[in-house]
Amino acid sequence: MLRKIIHVDMDAFFASVEQRDNPDLRGKPVAVGGSAARGVVAAASYEARKFGVRSAMPSITAKRKCPELIFVPPRFEAYRAVSQQIHAIFAEHTPLIEPLSLDEAYLDVTDNLQGIPVATAIAEMIRAKIKAETGLTASAGVSYNKFLAKLASGQNKPDGLFVITPKLGPAFVEGLPVRKFHGVGPATADKMARLGIETGADLREQSLAFLEEKFGKAGPYYYWIARGIDERPVRANRERKSVGAEDTFASDLFNLESALKELAPLVGKVWSYCEERSIQCRTVTLKVKFADFQQITRSRTIGGVIEAQTDLATLAGTLLEQVFPVSKGIRLLGVTLSNLSGRAAEADRQMSLTI
Questions:
Q1: Greatest CA separation for the chain
Q2: Are the CB atoms for 230 and 148 separated by under 8 Å?
Q3: Closest C-alpha to 312, from 339, 352, 346, 345
Q4: How many CB atoms lie within 10 A of CB 307?
Q5: 159 in a labelled binding site
Q6: In the sheet where 330-338 sits, what is the strand order?
């Protein structure tokens, strides 16, 4: 039996919440994030996107593209509150909800709680109720698997709905650039291009053996999605993989003492998050990004769980010491905890905290 999958994706979520809560921002180009020279755009309104402003773009670049851009600091508590409203609406229809982030999720409505036979009707009901209860718009994709539902949700953004039927699925995939495929990142897309794979049709021409040789464990996934086939189930209460925090600094760091000082609040943030939720970990990873944007990571795994914040600080500090002396300044530090246990199994997504 074919599944009925809906992918719901809020439209410019962080920026839309800010425009909803502050009428002076409506209709104007808005970026959520730091406005300083070293800041980064966390989210951009559709008015800002018309100028080429995108998330993860350096703030200075965004301001150059859109001189009228308005920066607002992020309010994650507000975004989480709205996210809870949205997920409560999802839960009225199905317990099979797989959140990907605060603003998007997969829903399996094959056997839904209200007995509605048409998934498109459910998607319309969800979108309408989100608009009524939050004042925000959501786009949705409906299809018979997760891969196609994700593709569909991006077709008519913002405030749109798109359906890919089993009959249309394979042909729809054939005509799309592989760069638009969920699960094909920029580096993989570049590699595919070097191999002459530009579209879904090009990907479909490749044998399973060839894709396994070139892309390893991901090869079978690419082979089947090129045919519109994705057997992955919607996984409710998906296990959390990691908890992390990072910060970009106003000035580059050149000595160990100042770097350790900036590392301390990151350690405190991830430890507090895990302690509040009874999450334990065994692995700490340090992320270092230099002034020229070169990035390195250093990890350490211990035999048992990390017992105290002081232990975590020592482990992270030791990893940082291994980086010094540095020949170029450090613009960003990050700390990530993995090999999680305890209530981590109840979490729904990989968590990233930004200071």
A1: 64
A2: yes
A3: 339
A4: 10
A5: no
A6: 295-301, 283-290, 330-338, 242-253, 351-354
Q: What is the dihedral of CA 120, 121, 122, 127, to 10 degrees?
A: 90
How many alpha carbons lie under 13 Å from residue 184 in its C-beta half-sphere? Answer: 28
For residue range 269-296, list pLDDT tens digits in order: 899 888 887 889 999 999 999 999 899 9
Asked whether the beta carbons of 259 and 324 are under 8 A apart, the reply is yes
Other Cβ atoms less than 10 A from the Cβ of 245: the count is: 24
Q: At what angle do helices 13-21 and 76-91 cross, to 10 degrees?
A: 110
Q: What is the C-alpha separation between 298 and 26, in angstroms, rounded?
A: 43
Beta bridge mates, 172: none
Rounded CA-CA distance 31/246 in Å is 19
Q: Phi and psi at residue 2, in whole multiples of 5°?
A: -70, 140
Residue 180 to residue 189: CA distance in whole angstroms: 9
Residues 6+ apart with CB under 8 A from 310: none
Give 40-81 pLDDT, tens digit per residue: 899 999 999 999 999 989 899 999 999 999 999 999 899 999
239 given a catalytic annotation: no
Residue 298 structure tokens: 């250093």
Angle between helices 256-276 and 309-321 (to 10 degrees): 150
Residues in Cβ contact with 7 at an 8 Å cutoff, skipping those fewer than 6 apart: 104, 105, 106, 107, 140, 141, 146, 149, 150, 152, 153
Residue 325: asked if its preceding bond is cis (omega within 30°), the reply is yes
The 3-state DSSP class for residue 246 equals strand
Bridge partner list, 337:
243, 284
Is 9 flagged in the annotation as binding?
yes
The active-site residue, picked from 47, 98, 104, 246, is 104
Domains of the chain are: 14-76 (3.40.1170.60), 169-225 (1.10.150.20), 242-354 (3.30.1490.100)
Question: Residue 177 corresponds to which tokens in the numbers above?
Answer: 């650039």
Look at residue 344 and tell me whether its pLDDT is greater than 60.
Answer: no
What does the alpha-carbon distance between residue 328 and residue 259 come to, in Å, rounded to a whole number? Answer: 13
